[in-house]
Amino acid sequence: MMKTMIQSVATAVGLSALLAAGAASAEAELPRTLSMTAYPTGSLGYTQMAAIGNVLQGKGTSVRILPGDNDISRMTPLKNQRVDYCACGIAAYFGSEGVLMFAGPDWGPQQIRVITTSIARFGLGLAVAGDIGVETPADLKGKRVAFVRGDDALNVGAESYLAFAGLTWDDVERVTFPGYTRSFEGVIAGQADAAFTATVAPPAQQLAASPRGLTWPRLDPDDSEAWDRLQSVAPYFQPHNVTAAAGDVDADNPWQGSSYPYPIMVTNADLDNDKVRPLIRFFVEEFDSYKDAAPGNDGYSLDNQNMKWVVPFHDAVVEYYKEIGVWTDEMQEHQDMLVRRQEILQETWAEYTGSNPPSDEDAFIAGWMEARAAALDAAGMNPVFR
User: Fold this and answer.
1) 36 in a domain, yes or no?
2) Distance in angstroms (rounded) separating the CA atoms of residues 95 and 72
3) How far apart are CA 329 and CA 308, in angstroms?
4) What is the pLDDT of residue 27?
5) CB 29 within 8 A of CB 276
6) Does some domain include residue 351?
7) Which residues of the chain have pLDDT under 50?
8) Is residue 366 part of a domain?
9) Domain co-membership, 206 together with 308
10) Dihedral sign from CA coordinates of 228, 232, 238, 239
């Protein structure tokens, strides 16, 4: 199982190293205008980006945020290079892999690179009605689990929780709902027993306040086999000590659960280093200037960066981390593997699309997923999605 968090490196770096790195890169200045996409206005991601934008405004950089209602609308401007960055969700990973909503002929695998991510106090997991006696994912066997039509991130999340206990959709009653909000209305109304969500989301709060109540199944952080099963379905999850959640969860009574970064600030691999370098320098060295500007902004701290995650970092970010002394040989080996994985996906996509693939979209996707899995299997890399 991958390491989940870089250990407290900020202290080890020391102020002198940060200052030295800043002086060495003084030639690269923040741009006058910075453009990005983000989640809709009112969302946590948009609120964070707007607050960080206000800080950047004071440094002479105007931030333009294009809110997008769904993953495709957030990723398309990045793909078309209308913006340099996306404050995305887990679709950044799906896009880099060319799977799910990005497996069709208009998309395919994208050469995406991470700038920075946020891991805050909240988590992501299955919110379970509190009246059915569920304490761990194994207790979900035979229970009714929500499946949200058209929402891959939620459904893969639920599937990964089942996998933690060695279960699949065949071991539970899958109840299909037309949308995320409707799934929680169904749990409250007794039509289902569990639905996937962020722990601080309003639907989870509503379930906690309902007569059914709410519980979060505990994920044992020391059960490596269970985590291997979970991450074989959703490798972007990591163990997380959650202190912000609906129900009886706080700093004194944390939930041992899971999370993945949100937002995930990404860009294209070919974005000029001189654009990226001052931005990552800002996120690290100016952390105190924005950490309290919006809920969850403390999640961007250097301590919270997972240096061995599932999407590679931009070259300029790696160079900066090397300069400040937090990048290791092990991290570089992982980075090289992720870059090679993207290269294999790009090569396979070019071969597949250049070989007269089916014109029917469903057949096209099926053929691509088969070709993708074969290429990754041949390279000794887990395709994850088949």
Assistant:
1) yes
2) 10
3) 11
4) 52
5) no
6) no
7) 1-26
8) no
9) no
10) negative
Residue 280 domain-assigned (yes or no)? yes
**Beta pairing partners, 214:** 129
Query: Residues 185-238: pLDDT tens digits?
Result: 999 999 999 999 989 888 999 999 999 999 999 999 999 999 999 999 999 999
- Residue 244 to residues 175, 289, 379, Cα–Cα distance (Å): 28, 23, 40
| C-alpha separations of 32 from 29, 53, 63, 275, 317 in Å | 9, 12, 9, 11, 20
CA-angle at 200, arms to 137 and 302, nearest 5°: 95
Asked if residue 110 lies in contact with residue 64, where contact means CB atoms within 8 angstroms, the answer is no
Q: Are 140 and 219 in contact (CB under 8 A)?
A: no
Q: What is the CATH number of the domain that holds 90?
A: 3.40.190.10
Yes or no: say if 64 and 81 are a contact pair by the CB < 8 Å rule: no
Beta bridge partners of 145: 174, 194
Whether residue 106 contacts residue 60, with contact meaning beta carbons closer than 8 Å, is answered with no
pLDDT score of 41: 87
Map residue 195 onto helix, strand or coil.
Answer: strand
Tens of pLDDT, residue by residue over 14-25, are: 444 444 444 444
CA-nearest of 228, 308, 215 to 255 is: 215
Strands (E), the chain: 33-38, 62-67, 85-88, 112-117, 124-129, 144-148, 173-177, 194-198, 214-215, 238-242, 255-259, 264-268
What's the total number of domains in the chain?
A: 2
* One domain, residues 255 and 294: no
pLDDT of residue 153: 84
Contacts of 257 (CB under 8 A, 6+ apart): 123, 124, 125, 199, 216, 217, 218, 219, 239, 240, 242
Q: Looking at the structure, do residues 207 and 266 belong to the same domain, yes or no?
A: no
Which among 6, 4, 71 has a CA at the least distance from the CA of 230? 4
Supply the range of the domain harboring residue 334. 9-119+261-338
- Whether 55 and 63 have beta carbons less than 8 Å apart is answered as no
Contact (Cβ atoms closer than 8 angstroms) between residue 216 and residue 140: no
Half-sphere exposure of 356 (CA within 13 A, CB side): 0
Partners of residue 239 on adjacent β-strands:
258
